[in-house]
Amino acid sequence: MGVLWTFTASSTIFVVARIVIRLKTFRRLFVDDFFVLLAWILSVITGIVWRIESPVLYEMYALSAGKTPLTPGVVPRLNALMRFEAPFMVLFYTTLWCVKFSFLTFFYKLGSKIQTHRRWWWVVSVITLAVWVISVGDIDYQCSLGGVEFIFEQCSKPYHIRWQNGTFWANCAGDVITDLLILSIPILIVWNVRISLTKKLFLLGIFAASMVIVAVAIIRVVTNHALDHNMDMTWLWMWSFIEMGTAIMISCVASFRQLFVTSQNQHLYGHSAYHPGNPLLTALRLRQTRSQAAGNNSWRGYDSGSHKSETAFVAADQVHSREQGDAASIRTESDAGRGRFIEHVAV
């Protein structure tokens, strides 16, 4: 129980910090924030269910070990416990996938209007949704909702055990693969932009924090590696809570980076940077392009030594933005210390 409430409390702190940062920086919440909030709510509900039913689970293990006699009052409690198993797994997978879709909605803007990035985002999103449907659909509902008689007569048979353990491994593989696919989206974008290698590695390091979730998912499976006998439910549920809590906390890391960027801009330019999007996203959108100023209706660049327009990619910590009606202005420092002003007309 200590692990459960430790990760629940930690994820709560991270979520509250994320919401405060978003409201302080942008004065509103975004779709990815609501996905994280939903994931946190589901994890709390799952924790409450575990808190209520865990004594019965320990009682069941005591019965199996012969430490406690089987009494008529135990059977209804065991039946109630088993009925929570399938809903628990549905809540677990839905919590994880809410975090995945939070990342996907966050990364959606990174590709801006670059068609190749947008297409890859849709491919990853469809695969992620399909894996969630499969993970929820292949749960052995009969061995949870089928009643005590069916559970005791059928669910201890080898083919039921192999099915449950096989789907457990398959769902873990889908969990890991979708995490890696989602991680490929920012890697594809950041690696192709023109910034220093140090800044690339720094940004990739922030995104790669999601690999911690992958590691926990693998540990969760490895600790229940059996294929021919039932898994230890207490161990499985404990690692499920660890993975849910870790996923929620990692999803909040980008918001902390966002506060750092905004604070640095406030120091450099004397007031808080405000933009309806993320300063990090704004920086990643500025892919290097060259075009004639007269032919570009969306971006107009002004430079004292040239009549041509050049959109430069800059690191997030060099970006300053402010909202003026429907337009946002972005100021960057030039190589010689002279200011370059780029006006972006919001779409």
Automatic annotation (TrEMBL):
The chain crosses the membrane at residues 6-23, 35-52, 86-108, 120-137, 168-189, 201-223, 235-256. One of its GO terms (cellular component) is membrane. It holds the Pfam family Fung_rhodopsin. Residues 17-261 form the Rhodopsin domain. It is found in: Membrane. It comes from the Eukaryota. Keywords: Membrane, Transmembrane, Transmembrane helix. It is a multi-pass membrane protein. Belongs to the SAT4 family. This is Rhodopsin domain-containing protein. It comes from Aspergillus fijiensis CBS 313.89.
